Amino acid sequence: MSRLCRMAAALFATLAIAPAAEAWGPLGHSVVAELAQRHLSPAVKAEVMHLLALDRTQSLADIASWPDEIRNDPNQQALWKETRPLHYIDFRDPSCVYVPPRDCKDGKCVVEAIPHYIQILSDRTQPDAARLQALKFVVHFIGDIHQPLHAGYRDDAGGNAYQVQFQGQGMNLHRVWDSGLLGTRGLDWKAYANRLDTEGVAPLPPPIAPLGNPVAQWAEESCQITRDIYPAGHKIDQAYIDAELPVADSRLREAGRRLAEVLNLALENG
Fold first, then answer.
1. What SUPFAM superfamilies does the entry give (predicted)?
2. Residues 47, 52, 57, CA angle at the centre, nearest 5°?
3. Domains plus CATH for the chain?
4. Catalytic pick from 39, 103, 131, 144?
5. Is 128 annotated in the active site?
6. Does the predicted TM-score (pTM) go above 0.85?
7. How far is CA 235 from its chain centroid?
8. pLDDT tens sequence across 84-116
């Protein structure tokens, strides 16, 4: 059995026994990264620090939004064009069941991108620069896949074409979930991570049949959440915030836990 297959099996085992929960803007991505970094094993944290040193940083939060930021870098336009479709998945049916040929043509979606970059990250024969880039994509895409509107099924570009009124201004629903909801707490990323981390280990949703692909399950969870987050009358009121902000918080916590598990599995052996 290949290392990637063993990692996938281990991830699924974790999901099976767990108790019964641009994507996020910079705030959300930093929160997910910080939650994960706090729960790395000592050996894995050392390896992460080794890779981050190439960018002269010591925080996963500092690299968590890099795959979005390259869109504005003239020197990275080819990479941005290549990886842009990997930030999301468009389900083609409200059943939210992942069908690769239909939902991820040619492997160009976040469900297939995550294991691809995990494989590069875990391969110690790869140059450190390639592994660092893979780390950036793994951190970011695990955040992305937990943002519900990065895995929707409606024909509205993940809520980008669905306009709402939020706090007295017009914006699209995708932006509300990227940053608007989280911003209502008035916390920076470290304070937000502190708040969520005090709640303990994030409980995870139960496995979804058919079993065997944990990354697909993460996307299916997000897709199922989108069934209930479109506001009546296109208006985001306080009742909506009170109902949906805990959902967003749960997805951040789940993403942080799963990212830590992925990195601990991918980098456990030096």
1. Phospholipase C/P1 nuclease
2. 135
3. 3-266 (1.10.575.10)
4. 144
5. no
6. yes
7. 26
8. 999 999 998 999 999 999 999 999 999 999 999
